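Researcher: Last one for today. Full complex below.
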Amino acid sequence: MTGLRLDDVRIRLNGVELLHLSETIEPGDILAVMGPSGSGKSSLLAYVGGFLDANFEASGDVSLGGQKLTGLPAHERHTGILFQDPLLYPHMSVGENLLFAIPAKVTGNQRKETALNALAQAGLEGFFDRDPATLSGGQKARVALMRVLVSQPRALLLDEPFSKLDASRRDHIRQFVFDEAKSQNLPTLLVTHDEADAKAAGGKIIDLDG
Amino acid sequence: MLRLAPALAIGVLLAPVACGVLATLLPALGYLPALGGHGITFSHIEGLLAFPGIGRSVLLSLATGLITTFVALLIVIAFISGWYGTRAFARVQHIISPLLSVPHAAAAFGLALLIAPSGFFFRLISPTFTGSDRPLDLFILNDPLGLAMMAGLVAKEIPFLLLVALAALPQTNARLAGQIAQGMGYGRIGGFIFVTWPLVYRQIRLAVFAVIAYATSVVDVAVILGPLTPPTLSVRLTQWMADPDITMRFVASAGALLQLLVTVGAIAIWILGEKILARLLRRRRNAGLRYQGDRWLRSLGLGMIVAAAGVIFLGLALLALWSFAGFWAFPDMLPRGFTLGNWNRVLPSLTSPLATTLVTGLVATLIAVALALGCLEREARTGRTGGSRALLFVYLPLIVPQVSFVFGLQLFFLGLGVDATWGALVLVHLVFVLPYVFLSLSDPWRAWDTRYASISHGLGASPNRTFWRVRLPMLLKPALVASAVGFAVSVGQYLPTLLIGGGRWPTITTEAVALASGGDRRVIGVYAFVQMVLPFVGFALATLVPAFLFRNRKDMKATA
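Model: Here's the assembly. Have a good evening.
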């Protein structure tokens, strides 16, 4: 019972069914869900992550590594999420953003070391004390990814995380995110309206439109 | 704890008003066992109506409420519709905003120093135009028609109405709608009033009612600027409430009931007026009238709003000037010399009221902010908003006239044996601080991007940790601004402090208003100066503290 399992998940809005899905995403795999806006793909992520708006009705079970997620509060699910905006906390430095994410069980010097290693891994040495507002779009995206990863998530949820990046950086960041997700053996759920994103993920693609 | 916040907040808003009105109603009908009233009788109400000039007092209160609100609203509409989206608009908005925090009493004193026969205005034109180097014998202040009082209220209501209207504008697509209307050949003002104003008005209606209620029942401004023979109903009530003859409490209660009817009547007349104007507006709109020649009206709107702000600013400057003035004879424009003597003379008696003002304001504000944050955070976690009913609760203490329930509340506290205690004083301040804190905080709090919370939860941070480490720091500036608003409201409280404090807890405001009849301008200058500086300090801190804490965080400037 490994991986992220969606069992008979249905999401409705005002009585209209937006999607109906049963899938299992194995660790290291990426499931790409495609669809235009309003297709309910973002609400699927919200349902898995535990922050679905009360206007939606949803049913079906989500489990992760054999543990049932549905019914757990969002902060006990350990499903790290990336949105299309990096949403780094503007009142914290880059390093503090990472320290906030590192679990409390990591203590003492370990904490800062973990953060510094993560920055080095993202090619951002020397950025620990920087104001996130001074970073470029691509740098912010990388910090956002490292922030999720250092929190030791058990699955990754990607909500069109590349749609706002310049074309020039886009491929690079996308590859970086997918590689990290695979190397950490995380089951990953990607929703996007961009076919190139879905194909680059290299896994199963579900098109909600078709 | 968080689960209790909404119930506590509603209790704070509702219970004092309900108990207060009830404890006003019973003595008005003769029931007040402590003073030997055991039965139900209409004799006190009859007695009240037999007072000489009571009809005139009622009429004054009614007219003041309706006229000042109407005039202030007209000026605000003319200004917004004529100038929204222009650079002049942004500049005026910048100047007007701080005026919201100026206590009513300080603004009224400032106006008095400006327009009195021996005031600044007549110093400017004497003796050249008046032909006299003595103050003219004019009845400008405390005029029997209440014109000075109305002018003061209009000037002070404009910033409030402007700011609530501005808060409502973003939800109306005003700029685009205006461009479309102008494209069809409508004048700026006509287009705005036809297309956007109804949407704005729907959102600010309760605030307008609060202004009517305030202006029909205000005490401190009426004492300083209003008519003397007879004064407005609310001023007479306040005199009866403090009458050494305690049987006057019955008449005062009957009067408080009458005040409630006057305010309700004023709002009813206003609602009738709304209906008539809405019909008139619809007919004009459907007739396709373009109203293109509105340039003069635009200029008038801008001129009036700048004049209103200018009058208040000039008045405040005069207060400061008087507080440092040495010998200053009429018609000299400036004092012959400046001195710290006034301050030195007043300081010993000023420190204790100042301490009461500060501590009461800070404690009431702290409780109010905690309650408001609790309600908003609870709302965010459950996804349930209180809706329009909750907003009605928030506005309740602002729409029921103060005089009508605070006096009853005093009798109620008397019955409980907690009258004139400091706790009771904080509680009654809280009743008025909480609505403003909530109104100030709720918009920015709800506008926050909740994806930050989703991310934080995904990182494993609990809702509490998310609140303390992410949401509150990111919204520190709006939270501090709301606190500054709350503190300013507390500082400005006159009647509740007077009645519930029972004279045992004088504040800067009660002391300043008490000085009004004495007419020592230097002492008044000192008190009113302190009264206006306190809120300014609050707002300055609300700006400077986040600016310092987040001096190296560029995006924190944008969110504030």
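Chain A has one domain: 4-207. The first helix of chain A runs from residue 41 to 49.
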